[in-house]
Amino acid sequence: MKSRSVDGEIKLVGYYPNYKTALAWYLDPEVCKQVDNRDEVYDMKLLKSMYGYLNERGELYYIKYKNRLCGDVCLHPDGEINIVVAKGFQNKHIGRRVIGEIVRLAREKDIPELYAEIYSFNTQSQRMFESVGFRRSDDGKYRLSLR
Question: Is residue 47 within 8 Å of residue 19, measured between CB atoms?
Fold first, then answer.
């Protein structure tokens, strides 16, 4: 299983089916709204479908903070980033530290630009991406040039 160390507290662990743990993050209505603009939480079928899609399309990792899985992040070949940090682990700068590692991974893969689609109401994610150098572009995506 692939893994990447972010720092002394955070590690990215290559995806493997761990649906029971991951489903807990997606049972939080606020997290589902932030990530997918959904008013409903995930069920197991939707979770498995999402992970299958992300794992097939990009490099998918669980985020492990102080030995506890607390979210996931995916880097797509086109530079798109998807990240989720469970509610109880937010506001600990986990996301920005993970994105820093994803930037390093993208450079290794010679991806010229990264981007994230963030809903206009998700100011928390907007601030997080801006804090690591992303800027809102004309199409509403948050972008970071790596060239």
Answer: yes
